[in-house]
What we know:
heterodimer, A: alpha+beta, Helix Hairpins, Immunoglobulin-like, five-stranded mixed sheet, 3 helices, 35% helix, elongated, B: mainly alpha, two-stranded antiparallel ribbon, 19 helices, 1% strand, disordered N terminus
Amino acid sequence: MDWALPPNYSTFGVVIDQLFWIILVITGIAFLLVEGGIVWFCIKYRGREGARAHYTHGSNRLEIIWTVIPAIIIAVLGAYSALVWDDIKGSSNRPADALEFLVVGKQFEWNITYPGVDETLGTADDFTVRNQFHFPVNEDITILLESEDVIHSFFIPELRVKQDAVPGMTIPVWFDATQTGNFEIACAELCGLGHYYMMASVTVHSAADFDAWQASQAPAAAQ
Amino acid sequence: MATIVAEATGQAILHEEHEQSFLRKYIFSTDHKVIAIQFLIYTLFFLMIGGLLAMLMRYQIAWPARGELPLGGIFPESMVASGYILPEFYNALVTMHGSVMVFLAIMPMLVGVWANYLIPLQLGTHDMAFPRLNMLSFWAMVPAGILTLASFFVVGGAAGAGWTLYAPLSARPDLTGVGLGQILWLAALVFIGLSSILGSVNYITTTINMRAPGMTWMRMPLTIWSLFITAILALLAMPVLSAAGIMLIFDQTIGTSFFLPEGGGQPLLWQHLFWFFGHPEVYILILPAMGFTSEILSVGSRKPVFGYKAMVLALVSIAFLGFIVWGHHMFQSGMNPMLGLTFTVSTLFIAVPSAIKTFNWMGTMWRGNLQLHSAMLFAIGFVAMFAIGGLSGVFMASTPVDIYIHDTYFIVAHIHYVLFGGSLFALFGAIYFWYPKMFGRMMNETMGKIHFWLTFVFFNLVFFPMHGVGMVGMMRRIYDSTGYAHLQGIEDTNAIITWAAFGLFASGFLFAFNFFWSLKKGRKAEANPWNATTLEWQTPSPPKHGNWEEIPVVYHGPHEYSHPDVEDKDWLAQNERPDVVSPAAGSH
């Protein structure tokens, strides 16, 4: 197997992956410095008969260096992370005209309510499908995430989306898929005996295909 | 255990000393050394239980469809049916592995064992400030252990909502099938909280009031600093968990709705309360380990701790920051995303004191005269493994990256690098290091070194690949990953991890053998086998009841190794005057 993130198919996923690799490089360098240093010291300063250690209580200059440098790296990383986070999850940055779906988790299934052809939730042409999430590509999607019983977590790895579904709360989550394809919703929060099979299929359609699919579903749901 | 406490001296120091019955001396003892040994035996037992639960869990993860669990027949049908681990038992394994390891093994081993053993000895006093409270703090752990073990055998099995006990899953038996088991574990938690609070009061009071003459704050060994700060954390954090646990019991049994939305409660309230305890808890689980490591590295490098003051300041700042980072466990929980911003900042900044400590440990080794005995190997192993755990923490502190890796095996890898590669490595080091003082005999070095290398190799084979499995996107706590399209192709890695986990568990038995074999057969230890400077080494091994014939007087800091003015040896005990050892030396 390759230890890799799955391919990314969402708009903001690009930045998340970028940040992942940036952190991997920074921590990788720190890793090599620390582990390399430890191994080197173990070999070089290995105890010998009659040897005597260098007597020192430390160095203020070094303390300042290794406090300030990590602090600067961390501050930059923190500021950048905060900006990206706000772009993705900040309530003021949610796309206003997104297509809305209602997603309700319950032991051990995902029920998706579609807005129907009028593209509005809460109207007569809404319909609900169990464990199947269809939506169009290249369009802002907002799901209103709820749970009927315990906490679940809505996770689509390829779209870099994860959000807990909490009973008693409605949590809006948005994303925008950049490619059509078939994926899965996994539950990422332990929710009981069937946690491991709480899975739903995800189909990202072209806009035309989505309309056709929705039209094919609506009459069935209306009966 | 006859070697544990030597016969009482004629010097009446504590009242209980005269003509103690067996019961008072070894069972209901108020001697801090005996209590520490009781904690040690207790926690080693639960370390084994926790490990066993992990082995069963790993078997299921590697071979979810195989069944054929070896010795599966010895389990009741409600756990293992015709060789298959049942999902409900798997959830109990996940939950109780975490719970047992955190609350019954690692935490009491770090604090119950070593705060008890070392605080009076390293500070130069006869015993704890409140010996009877101390005895109670051990005996409160006994019902906790019994309740925990019993919970596996009640109807519905043991708790299955994860060690984090997220409500409503943990609060509603109808949703898990677990009723009594969950309540028993919560009751155990209340006892653990009681034990921890009683212990903490004792450690804090003793450290403040009972230091030997000359033992100023900045002359205390870093072990004591770390245990003292840990006790403050525990005293402030444990009551929150105890209160929350009792609220959860009420939700389950008498119909309150603290955490249940149907009655107007808030599931997120549980998470806030749990993590307000839980994050300081993470530092409770690592600060003492940092203290032991500093101590052992200094002794083993024959050098003073590099940057002692910076080390103390880093401990204090970790403790302070540790109380304002709990929200980083909840980035994806549905709490206001704005809170995520503030918790990111505080979380990233806690990396700074951790980095300071790591560099100072390396500074301690730099130009040393390294004695690579078992204790030292584990201390160096701690630094190497803790560094990985610290660095992987940066990924999840960065909130956008956390969206993806939250609740995956990346987190599992991280926590184990800190809690096993960190805390447990330091604990093994501490046991090898202080065993001669505790029992008057040395542990076998050859077995110790083999134990280290087996542990080191298997540990990394188990937990390093979990970063990869997490990157692929494997969710935590799933009974069977094979049904997911994105998780195809990780079966081999999971099987390798499981085989390595079996090796890791098995190498624990080498340690256990060494531990018990050395009680009888180990080489007799002199008072100061490591040529160490701190006070506990300046009294016989094992110390007599009351520790000292005469309270020592402290003249300087704790880690005076290779002092240029001391000629015929490379160490200067805290109670030795430099001008007496080497008349030419000035006071330091």
